[in-house]
Amino acid sequence: MKRRGNGLDADSYAPLIDLAPHLADAMLEALREAGVAAYVTPSPDRGEPGRSGADGDSLDRLYVDTAMRSAAEGVLHTQLTRLRSSDGEPAGESGAADTETGEPPRGRVRTGDSGGGTVAERDEEAIWAEIVASFDAAPADGQTPWPEQENLDEPADEGADRTGRLPTARVIKFPAAEEAAERAADDDDHYIPPPPPPLPSTDPITKAAWISLVGGPLYLLVTVMLGWDVPGWAAFLAVAAFIGGFVTLVLRMGDDPRDSDDGAVV
Prior knowledge:
transmembrane helix; DUF308 domain-containing protein; 9% strand; alpha+beta; transmembrane
C-alpha cells in the first residue's frame, strides 16, 4: 500500500477524512506547518460503489496523529473555509457520510469540461458536518478504520518467556530465607555489647552511713528555707549524723584493690 507522509512521526494514527489526491497533498502540507504528523494512503474500499470521487477518481484516506486530532480538525476546517472563499460559488454535490460503518467522510472534487472551462464542485459545509456526525459512530463488525499495518498483536503475559528459548531450571528464593540470610550477615559485622552487671549490694551499716551523710545537711537546709526554729539538740544531731556517716564510709573503704587480677590477658 503506497503511503505518503508529511515528514513528521507519531505513535498512533486515526483516520480523519477521504480526499482527492491533490487535496490530500494540500492537507499534508498544512498539517506539517501546524506540527501535526499525518500521512495518506489509497482508500482501502475505493473499489466499492460510492467510494470514489464524482468523476470516478480514487480517493486518499488521511490519517493524523491521534493525540493531535483536535488540532488536525481545526486545520481541516480552516482549509475548507479557504477553499470555499477562493472558489466563490455555491457548493455542489457532497459526499455521503458512512455513519453506520464508522467510515470517515469523503471530500469530493469533480473536474470536467463544460463550455471549454473546468468546473470544480466542493461542499465543504457538508463535509464538515459529516466529520462531526461520524465521531461517535461505531465501526461495523470486522471493520477497522485504520490500515492493517497498525494492527498489533496482544502483548504476552508478564510471566511468559519472550526469548523463545526452552524453559530452564531456576532457583526460587523465598523472602523469609533472604531476610534471614541478610540478618545473619549483619550480625557478623556488628558488635553487640554484653548486658551491664547488676548493682552491688550494700550492708545495713553502709546504708545507714549514707542516710546520715545526706540526711543531716538536707534537714538543716529545709529548716533554713522554710524559716523553722531549730532546737540546739536537733542541729547538733544533724551535724553529728553528717560527720558520723562520713567517717564511717571512709573507715569502711579497703586498702586492697577491687580486682585481684593483673588486667587483660592476651
